[in-house]
Amino acid sequence: IIMSLGAGASLPRRRSTGWKLAEEAVCRDDLTRLCPKNSWNNNLSVLECLQDKKEETEISTECNHLLWNYKLNLTTDPKFESVAVEVCKSTIAEIKECASEELGKGYLVSCLVDHRGNISDYQCNQYIHKMTSIIFSDYRLICGFMDKCREDINTLHCGSISTGEKDIHSQGEVIACLEKGLVREAEQQPGAHAIKDECKKSIMRVAELSSDDFHLDRYLYFSCRDDRERFCENTLAGEGRVYKCLFNHKFEEAMTERCREALTTRQKLIAQDYKVSYSLAKACKSDLRKYRCSVDTNMPRAREARLSYLLLCLESAVHRGRVVSGECQGEMMDYRRMLMEDFSLSPEIVLHCRSEIESHCSGLHRKGRTLHCLMNVGRGDAGAIDPNCQRALQTLIQEADPGADYRIDRALNEACESVIQTACKHIRNGDPMILSCLMEHLYTEKMVEDCEHRLLELQYFIARDWKLDPILYKKCQSDASRLCHTRGWNETSEMMPPGAIFSCLYRHAYRTVEQGRRLSRDCKVEVQRILHQRALDVKLDPELQRRCMTDLGKWCSEKTEAGQELECLQDHLEDLVMDCRDVVGNLTELESEDIQIEALLMRACEPVIQSHCHEMADNQIDTGDLMECLVQNKHEKEMNEKCLVGVTHFQLVQIKDFRFSYKFKTACKEDVLKLCPNIKKKVDVVICLSTTVRNDTLQDVKEQRVSVKCRKQLRVEEVEMSEDIRLDPELYDSCQPDIKRLCPNINYGNAQVIECLKENKRQLTQRCHQRIFKLQEVEMVDPELDYQLMRVCKHMIRNMLQCLKQNKNSELMDPKCKQMITKRQITQNTVTLNPLLRKACKADIPKFCQSILNKATADTELEGQVISCLKLKYADQRLSPDCEDQIRVILQESALDYRLDPQLQIHCTQEISRLCPEEAAAQEQTGQVEECLKVNLLKIKQEGCKKEVLNMLKESKADIFVDPVLHTACALDIKHHCAAIPPGRGRQMSCLMEALQDKRVRLQPECKKRLQDRIDMWSYAAKVAPAEGFSDLAMQVMTSPSKNYILTMIGRELKDR
């Protein structure tokens, strides 16, 4: 494709073998001025030196003419062909196409220039390199070029084709002019001329052949000579390196406009034919062959050669996990960045987005700003966009694939650099997770405004094609193929709506095992990650935006803050068109299962979650638990205004449809279908089910119609609804005028408005009064639904068992309830399960019972050992007042029922079975087993049991309440003779002993008998107990006011025995 064989002016005959250009008078001055002396002896060196001069005026016209004729003769001289045959003998044999060329017509050298990239022989390479530099200096020397492009050159007014009319330095402009014509045609610019196919091929071939050495693109070489010195001084020529260097500096301020224009033209040619980039074609040659990117026979050659086709084909291989060489991927990265940086390299955008550029994005050409401006228009943030322009933008984003590496998007990279350095510094540079990290920090204090805009502009397009998130594609491609009928990475169906594949994936992500056809675990994680991120902006949900565009304009045009648009659509759910209502309903249903999708709400509620709900938040999908937890903790001190508003909003949305409460829906779905069919609103479903439960309870039916799991969740919903009057729409609607009149400045939460209406019941309108009265009726039957009562009294309610224990022996106590309370007391009779005791005795336990604690491990149940220890110290009167009060209660309870004393049960089970079987079998325990053990002290064989009974005797001496049999027998005498004596510390026992000694006092016979029994028991104890075991009791006797009488009685007993 080189060397025209056309005739030219002959040179003088003196040009024989020894002739030198340097000796010609017409060029001597120019040579002396411009070329180093050591090059004068070599004609080709002289030629190379003189033809690379920039300005026309640098070389005289006569010298120019001489050089032209010399080059023309060179290209047609058979001697040069002979030299090529000699120097390139081995190379010609290797290249079949060149070996078959007919000699004598200049085609052989042309063929070798064509294949110069494959020439390995050094001498041949040098020779052909010299010939190439001569040939490319003038389009007329390129074989066949003039014949194929003559008409187009004339039509496009690209210059003269007559010898001598133009000097050689402007000849490169002819090709540059044709190249620009080719670009205008590709962009379908108005008035563009259709260049003939054979000329097109010649233009592209010239561009391909000049791809390795920028000297060969004469127009670019002269346009960028100064810029090359400025930016790429140290870049070696060859293999396209200078082009690449200049491309990288194209948008620098110091770059000349003429050079920038020439570079852009060359880049546009590369976009038309990737082979115009030497480095890309060379680096990706084997990968293109391996992945069959250039053998699709169904495609026209022009499309197959396009850069976009190469990028999509090789990117598809990378995304499928195939190996593409690092060198090729590096080149692809450069050209993907190039496409994102300069929109004009994509002819479809230039063609279809012309009016958008003129209206919104003029003057922003550099560094990808125009493209981002168009993307912003595409988001709908700056008016409508032509569908063809939208498609062209979507196609470009797929070709450039910035989702795989954010650095491809220079505008985004520059805008987000500071955010990446602070928020995402833990992620490797270029990792696709950087974009995910930026999304996680959207609307946080670390985000900057510019970055936010660029990020949302890009994410808008990534959201419309699931393949453009490389992590999602990697983890979900098999799921998408199985469940959503997807095609290959680089195949796009025009019939598939934007975002349809992702919608399909997220529908399957939340399926239960019973529903089947679920996502793989890895894919599910990615789908949730993206859902959580995209929920921040309705425009990142293509289906929602498409179906709700009209409603967004109608109801939500003023809602511009993050997250407000979806909230607005949910608020107007009943007003939305059917299509929009369905998609908003589905998304709300999804949120009820996984509220973490609401990223902004999660951020606002972080303090509450950390303090009260962190376990639910750690679950991959919280299945409604997290929102339930937030509702239950709405009025904790960690709750802030933003979180409270968000949680209440979600509650108000939930009442519109029972499907919006995931836990309620899951627990009660079957019950609703059976008992409340055709009811949709949640509040109506709750009323229907709760009415059924109440009716069944009142009628005492054997089997409740509402299932247990539904009744449990129904209770949660009823309690939640009682917290805010707005969650009961009928009540709220009935009382709205009254609220405005009587409770204008009262917050809705914490049932404050309901409480206000109750307090002003006499002033209510009839309609509101009826509703409030009905509410109070329900609350009387079921106090748990009285929110204020339950809230104010919650600490007392938490101590409900304590209250029941205190009233266990009341005449009003239900026998079954009494039995259950006793059961709880038996199973919970240890210090760790008694918070009141633990709190009251926090100083006494370590002081007196440390040895027991030392033996225990973290999960050991002490089985009453600590309580037994404290009981003994109670008898010794050594406990603090608070602890003494608690132990007194325990002593009183365990004195009535031996089962409440774990140590007694452990050590005396066998003795009780042997000595006291009838007492133990009694349905109601009133201390008879303890009495039996005391009476049979001498018969007890087991030492452990004997010790426990002695302890009981010691405890009973300290407080008559601990001896229920004696206390019952002497109740009247205590009232008559010891009324002024306070209980505790053995005072009332001493009072009764003095009364027994005093002959003037007549005690009740039963009391007298029981007192005598006690003296007998103490005497038994003195006899059988070890010295240290009964020494404390002896001490008590010695300090008693009745000590003489007691000792006399004990002495008499011992003497009799």
Characterization of the model:
By secondary structure, this protein is mainly alpha-helical. It is 63% helix and 0% strand. Helix 28 (470-484) crosses helix 29 (500-509) and helix 31 (542-555) crosses helix 33. Mean pLDDT is 82; it is low at 1-16, 160-169, 296-300, 1027-1043 and 1052-1057.
Helix content: 55-70%
Question: Low-confidence parts, pLDDT < 50 over ≥5 residues?
Answer: 1-16, 160-169, 296-300, 1027-1043, 1052-1057
Q: Tell me, what's the shape? A: elongated
What fraction of residues sit in β-strands? under 5%
Major beta sheet summary? none
Number of strand elements: 0
Subcellular location: Golgi outpost; Membrane
Cys-rich GLG repeats: 58-120, 194-254, 323-382, 384-446, 518-577, 638-697, 705-765, 878-941
Pfam families: Cys_rich_FGFR (PF00839)
Keywords: Glycoprotein, Membrane, Repeat, Sialic acid, Signal, Transmembrane, Transmembrane helix
How is the topology of this model organized?
Layout: H1 25-34, H2 43-51, H3 61-76, H4 78-87, H5 89-94, H6 96-99, H7 107-114, H8 122-135, H9 145-155, H10 171-186, H11 197-209, H12 218-223, H13 225-231, H14 241-248, H15 257-272, H16 278-283, H17 285-290, H18 301-305, H19 307-319, H20 326-341, H21 347-352, H22 354-360, H23 369-378, H24 387-400, H25 410-423, H26 433-440, H27 449-462, H28 470-484, H29 500-509, H30 521-534, H31 542-555, H32 564-571, H33 578-593, H34 599-604, H35 606-617, H36 625-632, H37 641-654, H38 662-675, H39 682-698, H40 708-721, H41 729-742, H42 752-759, H43 766-781, H44 787-792, H45 794-798, H46 800-806, H47 815-827, H48 835-840, H49 844-855, H50 865-875, H51 881-896, H52 902-915, H53 917-921, H54 928-935, H55 943-958, H56 964-969, H57 971-977, H58 987-997, H59 1005-1024, H60 1027-1039, H61 1043-1056
